[in-house]
Amino acid sequence: MTDDLPLTHEDIAEIAAILEKSGYRELDLATRRFRLKVARGDGGDGVTQEWQWAGSAADVVAESAATEADPDAICSPLPGTFYHAPQPGAPPFVQPGDVVGPETVIGIVETMKLMNPVHAGRSGTVGAMLVPNGTLVAKGEALVRLT
């Protein structure tokens, strides 16, 4: 690890401790700035970790391909099930006509029982929800189109 990681060693140790107490084997945390994977070893022999800065070569290629296909689309940052609302019966995060900013949550993608918020990443007005609620999506798949 380098000193420029946006999380401290203490932050990662705390995340590892939470993982040890949970029923999960691994955690994959992705933000716009970085991605951190923490996993319990098979047989309980400690915790491993890896991280990378956002914008790795593979991510840049996938994101640019999706953007070229539909430059107004907000795409899924990872594979999983896309949900419009935080829980069943709750109002959706956004609807067509809503104005969003870069930090606005437009939905969540559930991957391995972890709920990952999807942020708009830029400002605009929601033109259409491209994926029905509860749909399995691939990384880079268009979820919402801005106008």
From TrEMBL:
GO terms under cellular component: acetyl-CoA carboxylase complex
A GO biological-process term: fatty acid biosynthetic process
Keywords linked to the UniProt accession: Biotin, Fatty acid biosynthesis, Fatty acid metabolism, Lipid biosynthesis, Lipid metabolism
One Pfam family from the record: Biotin_lipoyl
One function term, GO molecular function aspect: acetyl-CoA carboxylase activity
Signal peptide boundaries: none
Pathway: Lipid metabolism; fatty acid biosynthesis
Domain Lipoyl-binding: 65-147
Keyword check for Lipid metabolism: yes
InterPro entries the UniProt entry points to: AcCoA_biotinCC, Biotin_Carboxyl_Carrier/Decarb, Biotin_lipoyl, Single_hybrid_motif
Coiled-coil regions, chain positions: none
Known role: This protein is a component of the acetyl coenzyme A carboxylase complex; first, biotin carboxylase catalyzes the carboxylation of the carrier protein and then the transcarboxylase transfers the carboxyl group to form malonyl-CoA.
Record's protein name: Biotin carboxyl carrier protein of acetyl-CoA carboxylase
Organism of provenance: Novosphingobium aromaticivorans (strain ATCC 700278 / DSM 12444 / CCUG 56034 / CIP 105152 / NBRC 16084 / F199)
